[in-house]
Amino acid sequence: METELIKEINRVLKAFPQFWDNNILHRSMVIQAINQKEPKLIKALIYNEKIKSIYSTIIDGIIIFDFDKLISLLKYKEYWPDSFTKYRNSIGLTTDGKYLDRNTDVVLDFPFKDCVLEGGMTKEDQGKDEIYYNEVIARDEIDRLFSPKLFTNTKRYSANGVDKNITDFCDDDNLIIKGNNLIALHSLKERYAGKVKLIYIDPPYNPPNKNNTFDYNNRFNHSTWLTFMKNRITIAKELLHEDGAFIIAIDENEVHYLGVLIDELFPEYENHCITIVHNPRGIQGSNFSYIHEYAFFIIPRGKKTIGNRKIEKENIDFSNLRNWGSESERKDAKNCFYGIIINKETEEIVGFTDICDDNFHPNCNIHKENFVEIYPIDKNGVERKWRYARQTIDSVKHLLKVKNIKGIYDIQIGKDFGSYRTVWVDPRYDSNEYGTKIVNGLVKNNTFSFPKSLWNVYDCIHSIVGNDKNAIILDYHAGSGTTAHAVLKLNKEDNGNRRFIIVEQMDYIETITRSRLQKVLETENINDSFIYTELMRLNQVFVNKIQQAVDTSTLKILFKQMRTEAHLNYQVDLDRVLNNLHEEDGVDHKLSFDDLPLEKQKCLLIEILDKNQLYVNASEMDDESLSISEKDKAFTKSFYQKG
Q: In terms of CB atoms within 10 Å, which of 281, 364, 518, 572 comes out highest?
């Protein structure tokens, strides 16, 4: 894609014929000349306003020019057709002729207003429209898009109701943000960089059919989706704590591509792909009925991150704690020979003893006649060993049970002591029983037909922050709010103070997500609250109106309003938007605006909006033309002042 920056570089270099062979640029000569600081070339580059705006910073009137970045573009930008060595010694994902990890393009997504991001679909749901408008923008065309944004319409929700007079934000607040997640992540970075312990996301799955959530750019199906993911993961990674983890739910359509992307973006992390059975009834494909999805667990390399699974005793698969066979004698592991003390009446385990004699361990403080000590000694009197050391067993006492057969006691232990395995099978992961029905029970007119099981997400969160009661958990594809619900559930069970941050740009964040979480606080008597706020919209107002239009005449009225009120791309000839002829895939002639399908008309109008002006920058809160309320100013300042 030839951006304005590339055009300017070519125009500047055309003044230096020694760099050209007909129309082929000798890039190595340009790079060498830059490195040697040839005066004429350096002046031409520095004095070009476009190039200077991208690669220089002015400090006390002195221009600091980043030549290394410019050289990097000359080396790697995809518009060099003669770069036959560009793939040498490299393996990775590519998009439009360049490596994805070097791709600086940005994908903005504008979902159709009735779209619902689902964790899966039944056969009856497969005909449902799930349209995503997405636009690919060159990074050098963006100058304001990622600046911290202004917050508005802020409220606090609790079991006691709604407080609309909110001007302060503190570290103990849960947070719901309505707005584009890529833009919201850049605003969150101001306060939360390096503080988030877990990021859990359930992004759009990108099925390869007419319902593809990225259907508009269907020529670059996988690469556009991957660029969309990369944009968001890259900035989200900056929010992670040094011991933090990332979990991404996905299905079979993009699992392999996503796995490669993760390896490229997280070279210093372990990447584990977990299989989760979420729909025991199955979703019928052409050849197989799918009952599972996947979750990538991205955790710091070499660190013990995954804790023990929380598991109820009735669901534990027990095995014998005694060790038999070869290398099972006491001498084979001296720290695995100890006594386990059992209450004869209740048949409960009450303690341990470290030595084999007639005395109980002094810390037990019990009457010997009511108890019995069990040692791993076989019927022939051979001293053997338990499978695990005393210190290990002491930490998982809840997974031990006593087996009494005619007065002879033995000890059994839950297999893997509740460890998370690489295949998760649990009746609680059924998305219909513990996803749809849970949301239906909390929210009227629920439109989510197949949200994630609450317990599926709960176990994902528990695996990372089960022992960290003050962790921050982020989900920037919030959907119906399952992640936040799971955090509230976990806090209630262990009296934790974990905080959630969730982001969603769809309108259902108000009618479903927010309502669901408020209902959870009310019905489960949870003494907690959350802040709901929105990125203050500018051009995004028109994006929403375009998406909601039901016919061409409405779009034409909107376009007339946009010409006077919206911030539009300065390169667009506005007089020709409705009158020009447009190319359309599959049509052998150009079409007028009226002849285009409604969805293409919407895409066209969204494209002419200036994406730098989707939301109001926090730095512009004192602009009188925007009429920002004092309440919005105060909350925004409070949010960023501790960033």
A: 518
